[in-house]
Amino acid sequence: MELTSESFGLSLAEELIYRFKMAALKRAVILPFKKEENERALLNERAEQFMKKYGNQVLRMAYAYVHNMDEAEDILQETLIKILEVRLETDNEEYIKAYFLRTASNIAKNHISANKRHETDELNEELVAEEKTDLSFVWEAVKSLPDTQRDVIHLFYEEGYQTAEIADILGRKEATVRSDLKRAREKLKVILKEVYDFG
């Protein structure tokens, strides 16, 4: 199911762009007001373009880590700010997309490390409203995997990347990605069978 702004309530994309601008102003990512207005407008335009192109995928990846929509939105916002601070000098969309996902993955891991929470995680009701089957138990199983394996599972099954593409995104060797994918599948099979009597 494709996640859109409507999936998460009224005009999520606009809200996130607004939140980005407010946070960016505080962190001086937006140029000082003494600078030319068109320079600030250009930066805001880039932020909006990035959000429209990659925001949905980054949000999905963030949610796959933290299972909390508010925190996933924060990760998306931090990712966008980080990308604009770096000021990527390339028009290669695949490279930019991979950089976004890798940055979001690192930020999400930092959130998990900082929080050290052991809450009972639930899939957001809005994410599964149109699904015929409740797959929350699968998310629970995936969340128990090591970070490296969770990354690969998400990118392979949720985003549809091939192992060579995943290797580029994560900066790993393809053989390592294939190995992680195989081990993750084996672990999931054991977990789902033993804990949930599935499969």
UniProtKB/TrEMBL annotation:
Transcription as UniProt keyword: yes
Pfam families in the record: Sigma70_r2, Sigma70_r4_2
Keyword Transcription regulation annotated: yes
First and last residue of the signal peptide: none
UniProt superkingdom: Bacteria
An example molecular function term from Gene Ontology annotations: sigma factor activity
Listed PROSITE patterns: HTH_LUXR_1
Keywords associated with the record: DNA-binding, Sigma factor, Transcription, Transcription regulation
Residue ranges occupied by any HTH luxR-type domain in the UniProt entry: 160-187
Gene Ontology biological-process annotations: DNA-templated transcription initiation
Family designation: Belongs to the sigma-70 factor family. ECF subfamily.
Protein name listed in UniProt: Sigma-70 region 2
